[in-house]
Amino acid sequence: MNRQCVNCLKTLITCLNFLCWLCGAFVVAFGEFQMMHSRFASLVTTFWPIFPANTLVVTGTIVTCVCYLGVLGGMKENRCMLITFFVLLFILMLVELAMACVFLVYNREIDSYFERDLTKSLEIYRESSPQSNKTIKDDFDAVQHLFQCCGVHGISDWKGNVPLSCCVEDPCDVLAHSDWQEGCLHKLRDWFARNYLSTGAGVVTMFIIQFFCLCVSVPLFCHFSRHGLAYQ
């Protein structure tokens, strides 16, 4: 194998590792975007650790760090760094598969979590003084305004003390106005389900790219090492 071909293959390994890094960076950015534009975390706390935005940020950060090691190892032709990268990437792929299974299990339990958590949040909102529990109040108001709904199962959940965020008109006439009648449970649950679907699709896509990079990079690396062509 001539030197030019060897250099091309080494460049290919580095580019594949860089592609993994780009995927991780994109996942982090997308997760941060979701965290900035989703103000519902305080209402649904039972499965907060696998809240879609949190999962994307944590997974993307780990992928970015691991793949940066692969890019650096490829550029410096460092055997130790590349072996470490391959091992960590393999472990990360196993974790991503486990995460996909967790998402599948929790997706089936999402109804019971949502109803219990939203009902608890509504009770806290209804029983709180005007200056307390501002986060829950702001989040519940945002949900009702955004999804055009009122209460968990319907407007009757408020027991006559209906907040202005249920108002149909915008801006709302405080003295005479009509309110949304439909509850927020199904609308917010469907919104989370779509987020879970997109998050799961992102994890699967990232897994496929990583699997491809691993399948291509490892044989090339082993070939180079066996013939003593590169990587010290």
Automatic annotation (TrEMBL):
<comment type="similarity">
    <text>Belongs to the tetraspanin (TM4SF) family.</text>
</comment>
<feature type="transmembrane region" description="Helical">
    <location>
        <begin position="196"/>
        <end position="222"/>
    </location>
</feature>
<feature type="transmembrane region" description="Helical">
    <location>
        <begin position="50"/>
        <end position="71"/>
    </location>
</feature>
<keyword id="KW-0472">Membrane</keyword>
<keyword id="KW-1133">Transmembrane helix</keyword>
<dbReference type="InterPro" id="IPR018499">
    <property type="entry name" value="Tetraspanin/Peripherin"/>
</dbReference>
<feature type="transmembrane region" description="Helical">
    <location>
        <begin position="83"/>
        <end position="106"/>
    </location>
</feature>
<dbReference type="GO" id="GO:0005886">
    <property type="term" value="C:plasma membrane"/>
</dbReference>
<keyword id="KW-0812">Transmembrane</keyword>
<protein>
    <submittedName>
        <fullName>Leukocyte surface antigen CD53-like</fullName>
    </submittedName>
</protein>
<dbReference type="Pfam" id="PF00335">
    <property type="entry name" value="Tetraspanin"/>
</dbReference>
<feature type="transmembrane region" description="Helical">
    <location>
        <begin position="12"/>
        <end position="30"/>
    </location>
</feature>
<dbReference type="InterPro" id="IPR000301">
    <property type="entry name" value="Tetraspanin_animals"/>
</dbReference>
